[in-house]
Design goal:
Layout (H helix, E strand, L loop, with lengths): L3 H8 L23 E10 L10 H19 L2 E11 L4 H17 L3 E9 L3 E10 L15 E5 L4 H9 L7 H12 L5 H7 L5 E5 L3 H12 L2 E5 L7 H4 L5 H9 L5 E6 L4 H11 L3 E8 L3 E5 L18
Parallel strand pairs: 2-3, 7-10
Antiparallel strand pairs: 1-4, 2-4, 5-8, 5-9, 6-8, 7-9
Helix pairs in contact: 2-3, 2-6, 4-5, 4-9, 6-10
């Protein structure tokens, strides 16, 4: 049976070129002349993922969802810590999980500089730290009346994949594979977030559902918004289900997209389009910020749609 310290040394100890001191002491040491952005996300078996999910993809996603928070602030990710609660020290699971986590860390030049392990239900907790120029950071409070609302990528595929796993819908093999990849292997939009600094003042990552996350922006910025449902970007797979209640719910409120929703003044829309072309990311203009309170989603006839679910909340 592998010990706790052997587990850490074998699977989670790597060189930390961006830190003064990494894994192996009571604390890590980092130094930076810029503002530090910090975020934490937790993944719990049975809440965020299913028992038996691929540990390699789970390790990769554990870091990706934190990278998405960095992207939403326009921060450059640099360091992470990892705390694991494990039912048992399963070495094959640990090898695969650490492989996915460390691969994604290498992809984005993030150093794993510390953490903790304990016995218990399977829980993964990652803290990520990055650097940002404080005056350029993308904040939820940065939306202004007249701004355009933009969204990266596509919405709803991950939620459709989750509905398939729960038996709420039966997807064919091809559609299921596509949607489950979106659910289990999201792409954090780090390059986009960095590119938006100086163009946008406001962004959020879409983790709890488009309407819920945009509503956070509206509340923090003390503004309202009108969004055109037909403008919301979807994949060819989701297009088949767009008009159905489950498809509409997935697009508006599904969550787990890890795309960016951001606002920009209309005169900067050409710069946004140029960023999309530079990074090969689909960027869609979907609405506008207005005075007042609340979010209205309209159909092609300009009639307000009823939003059936506000988004994911853990304690509702």
């Amino acid at each position: 049976m592998i010990s706790e310290f052997e587990l850490i040394a074998r699977y989670f100890t790597k060189a930390s070129p961006n830190a003064l001191l990494g894994v192996g002491d009571d604390c890590a040491l980092i130094a930076s002349g810029r503002t530090i952005a910090v975020s934490t996300d937790m993944l719990v078996e049975g809440t965020h993922f299913f028992h038996g999910d691929d540990p390699f993809l789970l390790g990769k996603k554990a870091l990706s969802v934190n990278l998405s928070d960095m992207a939403a602030m326009g921060a450059n990710p640099r360091w992470a810590t990892l705390a694991l609660s494990l039912p048992e020290a399963d070495e094959s699971w640990l090898e695969a999980f650490s492989g996915g986590f460390m691969m994604q860390a290498e992809n984005y030049a993030v150093d794993l500089i510390g953490g903790d392990t304990t016995r218990g239900p399977l829980v993964i907790c990652v803290q990520i730290m990055g650097e940002v120029d404080a005056e350029l950071a993308l904040r939820r409070s940065g939306a202004a009346v007249g701004d355009e609302i933009w969204v990266s990528g596509n919405l709803g595929d991950a939620a459709l994949g989750l509905a398939h796993l729960r038996g709420e819908i039966v997807l064919d093999e091809s559609d299921a594979a596509f949607c489950l990849k979106a659910l289990r292997d999201p792409v954090p939009r780090v390059e986009l977030g960095l590119g938006l600094c100086g163009i946008s003042k406001c962004a959020i990552d879409i983790s709890d559902g488009f309407c819920a996350d945009l509503s956070h922006i509206l509340e923090c910025s003390k503004v309202s918004a009108v969004v055109e449902f037909s403008s919301l970007p979807v994949s060819k797979t989701m297009e088949k289900y767009r008009a159905a209640p489950l498809g509409e719910r997935a697009i508006l409120s599904g969550g787990d997209d890890y795309e960016l929703c951001f606002t920009v003044p209309p005169e900067k829309s050409a710069q946004v389009e140029a960023i999309g072309k530079r990074f090969g990311i689909r960027l869609s203009r979907v609405g506008r910020i207005k005075e007042g309170e609340g979010l209205v989603v309209v159909d092609e006839a300009d009639n307000a749609k009823r939003i059936r679910a506000a988004g994911y909340e853990h304690f509702r």
